[in-house]
Fold this protein.
Amino acid sequence: MERTLVLVKPDALQRSLIGQILQRFERKGLKLVGMKMMSLSDAILREHYAHLADKPFFAGLAKFMKSTPVIVMCWEGVEVVSTVRLLCGITKSREADTGSIRGDFAMSVSCNVVHASDSVATAEKEIQRFFSKDELFEYDKTEYAHVYSDDEM
Ligand code: IDP
Ligand code: MG
């Protein structure tokens, strides 16, 4: 089954939105297989945002991402990578669809409350970047019988 990485960013912690954001993924029917709180180092941020390293906003982005700890979550489900991107909405929160997390909770491009892996390949790398093997869990989620039909599993 596919897995994806989600970060709840410092603006969400400051605004007391952790519970409401987590609930979006839970109520959709996704399975939580890992979760922790951590402070991000410059080294992990350089790796995580390598595609943005030469952008003028990179230093500000790194400062923002270090301003509080973040919540790191790994979610599992059928086609969960694209599903979670849809749940989060586009980068520029002001234009994100209403009903998406960014669309409902944010106004900013940089302070956009969540990170989500953008492809299956990226998700695999990001999960390894943020979690050790013993921090990820396998268990039966009995609710799945109602969330998916047999042909999807
Ligand atoms: P994504 O988070 O929607 O995948 P990316 O392009 O991968 O978007 O950018 C990573 C993060 O960098 C964004 O979520 C946002 O916090 C920040 N960011 C992206 N573009 C800008 C910008 O133009 N100005 C300021 N911050 C930005
Ligand atoms: Mg991205």
The chain has a mean pLDDT of 97. The longest helix spans residues 18-28. The two ends are 8 Å apart (CA to CA).
